[in-house]
Amino acid sequence: MEEMLESNEMIIHLGPQHPMQPGPFRLNLRLKGETVMDADVELGYIHKGIEKILENKTYLQGITIVDRICYLVALTNEECFVGCAEKLLGIEPPARSQYIRVILEELSRIQSHLLGLGEFGEFIGFVSMFMYTIKEREDILTLIDMVTGARVTHSYLKFGGVRDDLPAGFKEKALPVLNNLKKVISDYEEMFQSDRIYRERTAGVGILTADVAKSLGVSGPALRATGVPFDIRKNEPYLVYKDLDFKVCTETAGDCAARVQVRLNEMRESIYILEQCFDQIPNGPLFPEGTPYGRRTPVMRVPAGEVFHRVEDPRGEMGMYMISDGTDKPYRVKVRGPYFPTLQALPPLIKGTTVADVAAISGSMDGCTSEADR
Amino acid sequence: MDARTIIESLTGKFPEAISEAGIESPIRIRAYVDKEKAKEVCQYLKDSLQFDHLCSVCGVDYPPRNELESVYHIASYDHPVVLMLKARLPRNAPEIESIVPVYWNANWYERETYELYGIVFKNHPNLKPLLLPEEMLGEWPLRKDYEGFPNKTARNLV
């Protein structure tokens, strides 16, 4: 990049330790005055080699590893990994387990969006937003902790079910938190909209059109903010999502404000889904009856085959491609994380903007570099 | 557009290049593609069959068959079918045409597959390591016979 510099241009490096992006990656910007002429992303600082590790661990051990792909969405990662193995095994969790999974995954979506909003606020200088959202997120994490016994890495899903049932009185504890959250989300919305600085820093900044977003391979809230109603929960329903009533949140502007608005609305939909789950959840076993799968299945052989399973992660489409050769370890697991294409789309998106907007744009993408690196 | 229509259209258009095409479930289809024709098939998928969303590109190593496979998962924003397209490559000289001109976001996936498996994507705009340091080029860490960098320590760890 240095060789192409003109005399009035300069290079600045954002990251790997810059608070602009959570997680270490480096963004090299070629600037002319304040305008970004060119951008280049370097990643790989925290490459963990998860795909190689998974090939050398049993399926059950693999669950603890996929938690670490992105620990903000550990439950959705587990869902994808466990879902792949379940498809190969030809088993389906009983209804109660499926509802418990939906409850936890939606709670997980809410906490991820809350943190994403807070961090976005921080990037554009709205630091108190982070204080507000982290407080609400704590309540959600407490609810998840009550069920799984862990705050971020849960190892909670098992093949064919879940490790433990919901604790007694979970619904009574959860509903006041969710009712409070509904109020708080409206407060956030009002806070954002009444803030002139916020409006000017987000509205019309980093505009992604539907066609461009599709060709860049973007998914999740960043895509839905351009008006494309693409949501794996609707397009390819897994678990009991086809029995639940919810709508896919879309916006049309495609700018930073629209991406934030999609996340706010998605939290409302998640609360609505949770309320339905609490009403509808049936009693019954946690694991399919008449099969050897249960809470204790230390050694499990999976029939040979290959499968590609997708779930809707808070950041978009999470897919895993699993090949089994009939032993107790996967032959190959390819993780297709939602943030990888979104991060790849960052350089073309910030080209031509000003350097102050870079933080707003990359923050509104709600990235997890750890997941892109794997 | 359903799985059967897509398979029939694909095998009808490329009778030589597409082999072992099959339907796994109403929303999952698979096929092998001749490595010389991969880009052409992708272009057809994108233009005529609404496959406008490239999910991923990855490699798989099969030492007993002395083969590497380059696997493309291609989906659509409009219909729910996901196509798994695979190309067989010889293990000693794996080369395939890059599909970046067709799918923009194949760029990083192909770079990742190159550094981890050593599959060379011809005419890729910038084929250099993405995640790993450059001194690991030539090690191909995700191949099955990889033993660890630099002193083969990984064998003891796993």
UniProtKB/TrEMBL annotation, chain A:
Record-annotated NADH-quinone oxidoreductase subunit D domain positions: 124-374
Protein name: NADH-quinone oxidoreductase subunit C/D
Organism: Methanosarcina lacustris Z-7289
InterPro entries (alphabetical): F420_dehyd_FpoD, NADH_Q_OxRdtase_suD, NDH1_su_D/H, NiFe-Hase_large
HAMAP family, per database record: NDH1_NuoD
Cited NCBIfam families: F420_dehyd_FpoD, PRK06075.1
SUPFAM superfamilies noted in UniProt: HydB/Nqo4-like
A UniProt-annotated Pfam family: Complex1_49kDa
UniProt GO molecular function: NAD binding; oxidoreductase activity, acting on NAD(P)H; quinone binding
UniProtKB/TrEMBL annotation, chain B:
Origin species: Methanosarcina lacustris Z-7289
InterPro entries linked: Complex_I_30kDa_subunit-like, NADH_DH_suC, NADH_quin_OxRdtase_su_C/D-like, NADH_UbQ_OxRdtase_30kDa_su, NADH_UbQ_OxRdtase_CS
Pfam families from the UniProt entry: Complex1_30kDa (PF00329)
PANTHER family noted in UniProt: NADH DEHYDROGENASE [UBIQUINONE] IRON-SULFUR PROTEIN 3, MITOCHONDRIAL, NADH DEHYDROGENASE UBIQUINONE IRON-SULFUR PROTEIN 3
Lineage, highest ranks first: Archaea, Methanobacteriati, Methanobacteriota, Stenosarchaea group, Methanomicrobia
Record key words, sorted: Transport
PROSITE patterns: COMPLEX1_30K
Domain NADH:ubiquinone oxidoreductase 30kDa subunit, chain residue ranges per copy: 32-148
Family to which this protein belongs: Belongs to the complex I 30 kDa subunit family.
Record protein name field: NADH-quinone oxidoreductase subunit C/D
Keyword Transport: yes
Gene Ontology MF: a single term: oxidoreductase activity, acting on NAD(P)H
Protein origin, superkingdom: Archaea
